[in-house]
Specification:
The protein is an alpha/beta fold. The protein contains 10 helices and 14 strands. The strands form 2 sheets. A 7-stranded parallel β-sheet has the order 3-2-1-4-5-7-6. Strands 9-10-8-11-14-13-12 form a 7-stranded mixed β-sheet. The longest helix has 16 residues. The mean pLDDT is 94.
């Protein structure tokens, strides 16, 4: 069976990446591609690398244009997806790549986003280990509404969840510092993201626990260990176009040993196609995951500080967003989970 799909917000980075992956998916047929201010332009004007859909015209994001699709991807600004989702039918599979439906705590949403909470959808991080047993993929079969995780959230959650689920990490003392490519901030023009400002420089942002991904990270990791988790999360903008390198450290529990930690990650991820735990001595790098739906993870232990150091690398536009959306879509539609998702990367 071939499913007809639409992409709302196709002019942005995530929308473009969704189009690239849709073109490679054997079970998908592209329907409407929509935009706001860029409506009327050709796909090739905004995504010149997408030859498969070069002559497609972006249309307005309206109820009429999004009707009649089996699947609709929302690649829209935060607090916009909820408006569009209201007029999509219940039998349409909708995957929101924005933040509108990720958080379960309405107070946390209002604190970090400043608008009324729209609700909570099934969470699209299939490999997330859960304290109650199983993984998040278990709840994605046959659902019709999926909230795709934040890219920074994915890098941190996949890195730390198995150690917390196994009870080997202290949930009260976790620090995550992320080096993030500029595409993680979106395509809209911002003065501090201009090439002249970013080239040859690195800059922290969202400092002091105010970044919007903080409550989502804590939500995931709390589910992983069954108790409240406290995370100090700081992203750092670095001069690369895409990719995230997350350096996560945590105090260890009394039951910790590096051998037990390695065993826990092998148990969690040993059969996962899209997660690779690297051999001892190898470290993740963003160049190794460009263009693919793969996360690299390494495990180390700082004996003097009594802290584990877990490093992860993902492509923020693939495993961090569009690839996760396709992966979750496959599960919701009953397709093979890996369908249409490349495992071979591109040269940096």
């Amino acid at each position: 069976m071939v499913f007809k799909v639409a992409v709302a917000g196709a002019s942005g980075y995530v929308g473009g990446e969704l189009l690239r992956l849709i073109a490679m998916h054997p079970d998908l047929e592209l329907g409407a591609v929509t935009a706001n201010s860029n409506a009327g332009q050709l796909v090739s004007a905004l995504h010149p690398h997408l030859q498969s859909y070069a002559d497609r015209v972006l249309v307005a994001t309206t109820e009429e244009n999004l009707a009649g699709h089996d699947v609709v991807f929302l690649a829209l600004p935060h607090a916009t997806s909820a408006e569009v989702a209201q007029y999509l039918t219940e039998d349409t599979l909708v995957l929101d790549c924005g933040a509108d439906f990720r958080l379960e705590d309405s107070a946390a949403w209002e604190k970090f986003y400043g608008t009324k909470h729209a609700g909570t959808w099934s969470y699209g991080l299939p490999e997330l280990t859960l304290a109650k047993g199983g993984k998040q993929r278990d709840v994605l079969a046959d659902v019709k509404r999926v909230a795709v995780p934040g890219c920074n959230v994915t890098a941190v959650s996949l890195a730390l969840a198995p150690g917390l689920t196994a009870g080997l990490l202290d949930p009260s003392d976790i620090v995550s510092i992320l080096s993030v490519g500029t595409s993680g901030a979106g395509r809209s023009l911002k003065a501090d993201l201009l090439a002249s400002e970013v080239h040859g420089s690195a800059r922290a942002y969202g400092v002091g626990g105010v970044h919007r991904h903080t409550p989502e990270i804590e939500q995931n990791l709390s589910k992983a260990c069954g108790q409240k988790v406290q995370v100090s999360f700081t992203p750092v903008l670095v001069p690369m176009s895409r990719g995230i390198l997350a350096v996560n450290t945590a105090k260890v529990s009394p039951d910790f040993s590096l051998e037990r930690l390695e065993a826990a990650y092998q148990k969690a991820y040993g059969e996962e196609v899209f997660i690779r735990v690297l051999p001892t001595g190898q470290l993740p790098q963003t160049a190794a995951v460009l263009g693919v739906n793969t996360a690299q993870i390494s495990l180390s232990f700082d004996q003097a500080a009594q802290r584990v150091v877990i490093v992860s690398a993902i492509d923020n536009l693939v495993k961090g967003t569009a690839g996760a959306a396709i992966q979750s879509m496959n599960l919701a539609l009953g397709l093979v989970e890996t369908t249409g998702l490349p495992i071979d990367g591109v040269a940096p």
